[in-house]
Task: structure prediction
Amino acid sequence: MDPRSLTPALRALRLCLHLLMAGLLVLAAVRADSAAGTVLAGVTGAVYAAGSYLPSVRSSQRAAAVWLAVLGASWVALLCLTPEALWVAFPLYFLQLHLLPVRRSVPVVVLTAVAAILSYVGHGAPLNPGVFIGPLLGAAVAVATVLGYQALYRESERRRRLIEELIATRAELAAAERHAGTLAERERLAREIHDTLAQGLSSIQLLLRAAERALPPGSPAAGHIDGARRAAQDNLAEARRFVRALTPPDLEHGSLAAALERLCEPGAGAGAHEPQAGTGTHEPLAGAGARRPGAGPRVRFSVSGTPVELPTPYEVALLRIAQSALANTVRHAAAARAEITLSFMDASVTLDVVDDGAGFDPGAVRPSSDGGFGLPAMRSRAESLGGTFTVESAPGQGTAVAVSLPLPAGA
Result:
């Protein structure tokens, strides 16, 4: 383990292990009956110290295994000279369990305990249950302690990663909500500018034209009225530029028909989505093309009648209703095919979204538990522009969503 990654508690445990090893080796050196025992205790301590400061031992299991083998060999040699060296087995247990994988560390710990018992018996010490229980019990405690700590560490890491994922997800949701709020505010401002300033300036311009026609020839007010009419015309053009600048991105690069056609293209679902009212999130729509498992229905788009230029609020409402209806088809209908039809008639424009999916009972629809209010939101959009919204469906018979908006005068 990299010392830089150690917590204060782990640093304290590491220091205690060093002190325990040093104390037991000093005890073995002092109790040894020969100079060779003292030298071997010093060699064992030097091998232990070298491994504690070698980066390769902490970063490579192979290097750690080699170091433990050398340390174990010097310890076994020390065992042959003094029975006091058997106490060094206890810190060795923790080293072996920490540096080796479990499938290797447990057998090595058992061999270390057996070596400690055999050395004690080999030096002629009297046999008693403690000779066998002590090393084996110490090995069992070391195994339980280290494996328990590793399990707690893994759980802690799992929780840490989960918390990081939750924080990242919360940030993404906040960004999505801000983006949805920005788009909604852009739509609201475009609608307000169109319905108030632009319409007011257009009315002023018409009134000034009428006043200009009603003036007698050579009237001194004609120039002032003409200047006022031109100013109103310029400001009306500026207001319309503001409306176009605030138009949703889906309508920035073409007409409503083009936006709906892009919505039905294969792969278009990655980018077209409808904000679900009250949630601030987006539901991706499936594109058309060959149907794949989980890819959504094949979607076809068609235009009926002679297209006319629609006011921006009309285009925004129809596009959003189409996105929301298609999103519901993908999420709930399990349909194989869907069709979007935009129809221009003498006095109205109609949007139909039809699928061959599972269908449902429209009278039994309630707001979902996840906050979705798709049908009420679509109905509200249509009725806010003086239109009508209808849903025809039955279990097993597919679904047809239709919205009809009256064309404004002059469209």
